[in-house]
């Protein structure tokens, strides 16, 4: 029996994939404008991609921006994500800064999930998971490959590793170069779902070729749509994404 994740009345791991939309504002006013727009859309979760935020290295400014976001998105499940440059993010910070940022935000009570990259030190990942869990925050343990699609076996291996480390939502996003790459991602997703997963997980094939994976489901619990500006190639406008998910999951 696979577990589910319940957050603010939303259940991840049952029914159709849930829709998450990223916030990519660089300043607090931009984030507030985004938050007000997102409040009008038919979405399930919001991800704050804090690596876009110009003052990300000032923890007090990050917390203040978070408070402002929460004043608008009061009841929306919120994911906090610093995506490193090596995994497709906007900037790089030191490992110590990365750990401190995620620990500090996990302790605010203002976010529901944090994203921790799989290719960090194991002890750091476990520390972040322990801190998050102690403050009732779920953890996405993620990996992103913007260059290629690894083999099916490697995709499954990374997802299983994220699960073994204690991630509540293992995640992998890969870049296809051929249609076969897209099928590899879907095959890996199906194998993970049928054989190994004891919790919800997320798989994505990026870019135009991979767009089908954003609506196909196949076991992935979450999909990412775009409001105005997407945070990764291939994201579909949220209203169109909802229509397609409804059609495929009637």
The biggest beta sheet reads: 9 strands, parallel
- Sketch the topology as an H/E string, one letter per element: EEEHEHEHEHEHEHEHEEH
- In percent, how much strand structure appears in the residues? 15-25%
- What characteristic shape results from the CA principal axes? globular
How widely separated are the two ends? Answer: 23 Å
What structural class do you assign from the helix and strand content? alpha/beta
Rg over CA atoms, rounded to whole Å, is 17 Å
Numbering strands along the chain, what is their spatial order in the largest sheet? 9-8-7-6-5-4-3-10-11
Q: Percent helix among the residues? A: 25-40%
Mean pLDDT: 94
Give the number of DSSP strands: 11
Count up the helices: 8
Unreliable runs: none
Q: How would you sum up this structure in a few lines?
A:
With 250 residues, the protein is α/β, with parallel strands linked by helices. It has helices spanning 28-38, 59-72, 95-106, 122-134, 152-164, 179-196, 213-216, 238-248, and strands at 5-7, 10-12, 18-23, 45-49, 78-81, 113-117, 138-145, 169-174, 202-205, 222-226, 236-237. The model has no long low-confidence stretch (mean pLDDT 94).
Give descriptors for this structure.
9-stranded parallel β-sheet; globular; two-stranded antiparallel sheet; 11 strands; alpha/beta; 250 residues
Please tell me about this protein's structure.
The chain contains 8 helices and 11 strands. The chain has helices at residues 28-38, 59-72, 95-106, 122-134, 152-164, 179-196, 213-216, 238-248; strands at residues 5-7, 10-12, 18-23, 45-49, 78-81, 113-117, 138-145, 169-174, 202-205, 222-226, 236-237. Helix 1 (28-38) runs parallel beside helix 2 (59-72), helix 3 (95-106) packs parallel to helix 4 and helix 5 crosses helix 6.
């Amino acid at each position: 029996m696979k577990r589910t994740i319940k957050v603010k009345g939303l259940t991840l791991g049952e029914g159709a994939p849930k829709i998450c939309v990223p916030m990519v504002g660089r300043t607090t006013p931009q984030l507030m404008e985004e938050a007000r727009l997102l409040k009008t859309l038919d979405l399930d979760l919001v991800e704050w991609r804090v690596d876009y935020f110009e003052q990300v290295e000032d923890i007090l400014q990050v917390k203040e921006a978070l408070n402002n976001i929460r004043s608008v998105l009061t009841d929306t499940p919120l994911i906090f994500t610093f995506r490193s440059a090596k995994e497709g993010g906007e900037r790089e910070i030191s490992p110590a800064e990365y750990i401190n940022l995620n620990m500090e935000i996990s302790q605010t009570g203002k976010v529901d999930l944090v994203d921790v990259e799989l290719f960090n030190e194991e002890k750091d990942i476990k520390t972040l998971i322990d801190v998050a869990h102690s403050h009732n925050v779920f953890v996405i343990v993620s990996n992103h490959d913007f260059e290629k699609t690894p083999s099916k076996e490697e995709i499954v291996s990374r997802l299983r590793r994220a699960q073994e480390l204690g991630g509540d939502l293992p995640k992998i996003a890969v870049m296809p170069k051929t249609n076969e790459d897209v099928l590899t991602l879907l095959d890996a997703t199906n194998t993970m779902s049928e054989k190994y997963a004891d919790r919800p997980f997320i798989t994505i094939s990026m870019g135009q070729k991979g767009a089908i994976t954003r609506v196909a489901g196949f076991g992935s619990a979450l999909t990412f749509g775009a409001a105005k500006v997407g945070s990764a190639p291939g994201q579909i406008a949220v209203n169109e994404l909802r229509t397609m998910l409804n059609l495929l999951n009637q």
